[in-house]
Amino acid sequence: MPLAKGGSPDPAIKGSSLLCLPYRPQGSESMVTGSIPHRLRGKTPAQPLTPGSTGPAWPGPPRVAVPGLPTGCVASLMSPSAFLPGRKVVVVRCEGINISGNFYRNKLKYLAFLRKRMNTNPSRGPYHFRAPSRIFWRTVRGMLPHKTKRGQAALERLKVFDGIPPPYDKRKRMVVPAALKVVRLKPTRKFAFLGRLAHEVGWKYQAITSTLEAKRKEKAKLHYNKKKKLMKLQKQAEKNVEGKIARYTDVLKQYGILV
């Protein structure tokens, strides 16, 4: 599906007025936006997928936390250039994804999508996923040539989860700044959460996911408080030896080893 049209091929998302075009600013390296078709260059400003402002400095696939990101937008930024070149991506907390438009309108769209089936044998499809992670997965699938070997291999490199299961709860995560709601939607525009939509069309694990997320956040809070104390002690230790190593520091700065 050509990216110039934006949005998503998924009937649950179709009709959104949100336009999402992948773009990489000059001089920046992006793990997700990748190369840009010539017809899209310079269309919309966007930032690379980064933790903060720099590229990831850890091994393995990037872990992307997607709460607060519009569905079609994050999918369109990630699908064509993140998986096809051979990269692996793990998407977590899919229940927090946003869909532009108010909740009632999006629910009517999804209920209309649920009625689309094969009359003689509904078990042959189309298949209607209820979990937020699978709804997002289907949105990405619609933006890939998934019926080719290349597209199938690309789709296998994508992992999607509701909540943050182990071992990803103890690993660094990042967002896609170019797809944030505050960047893509006006403050007055209405939006819906994918988790609530999924719950009202048959997803049974909203309460369980919320409970597990609350436990994870408590553990993460304790870990962060401990980390802050250690960082404070480290700064104090550096300050204590600053006078003793000053002459060595000056020599290192002179030769450009320290800045």
TrEMBL record:
Coiled-coil regions, chain positions: none
Signal peptide feature range: none
Entries under InterPro entries matching the protein: Ribosomal_uL13 (IPR005822), Ribosomal_uL13_CS (IPR023563), Ribosomal_uL13_euk/arc (IPR005755), Ribosomal_uL13_sf (IPR036899)
PROSITE patterns: RIBOSOMAL_L13 (PS00783)
GO terms for MF: mRNA binding; structural constituent of ribosome
Family to which the UniProt record says this protein belongs: Belongs to the universal ribosomal protein uL13 family.
SUPFAM superfamilies in UniProt: Ribosomal protein L13 (SSF52161)
Organism: Gopherus agassizii (Agassiz's desert tortoise)
Keyword Glycoprotein annotated: no
Pfam family, one: Ribosomal_L13
Location of the region described as Disordered in the Swiss-Prot/TrEMBL record: 39-60
Name of the protein this chain belongs to: Large ribosomal subunit protein uL13
A single GO BP: negative regulation of translation
An annotated GO cellular component: cytosolic large ribosomal subunit
